[in-house]
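A student in our group prepared the protein record below, which I am reviewing. What it holds is a sequence and that sequence's fold in token form. My question to you is simply how this chain folds and whether the tokens agree. Do not assume that whoever made the record got everything right. I have pasted the whole thing underneath without changing anything:
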Amino acid sequence: AVNLIPTKVFNFFPNLKSFYVNRTSLTNLVPDAFNNCPVLDNIVIEQNNFPEVPAGFAQNCHQVTQLRFLQNNIQRIHQDAFVGLTALYYINFESNAIKCIPDGLFQYSPSIKYINLGYNQITQLDPNMFAGLPNLGGYELQFNQISYVPIFNFTGKAMVTDMSFDVQAYIGLMFNPIMNIHPQLFSSTFQAVNGQ
């Protein structure tokens, strides 16, 4: 079983493009774990047991476009976890134990198109969590513990322009104990869609 991905383990693999770890009992993701992988494109870590995504875990991997961290029992994502991930456009952290999204988490990755944080334990949504993401087309937050949906500072491409049900063209908030929705939520979304 692999419990730890140590720093500098990839020094002899400068051309590594994909990293995939599944069911290895990984319990710790260290800062700088992937920092010697300049052409790494996607990181897939699934069905492990590490509690945190640390700051700068791949900060020198400027070509990473996809992160898939499903079913890892992640409870916390450091607010600087995505430092250096400027090409990142796909994030999937479904089926973990994440309780909150730190302020500014996505600020380092303005190319993000799709975010999946479904099946977690998120209780609150920051109105600015999607600000500065002009390419964001959809996000999934279903099966969390969200009771209030605020009006978002949303600058993305928004969700209802593509009626072909493109997977990246909607908001997923199903199966949350929502008690209140900001009355201007949808009007602001349509304004973003129409460029108003």
About this structure: The two ends are 53 Å apart (CA to CA). The first helix runs from residue 185 to 194. Helices lie at 185-194. The chain has one helix and 13 strands.
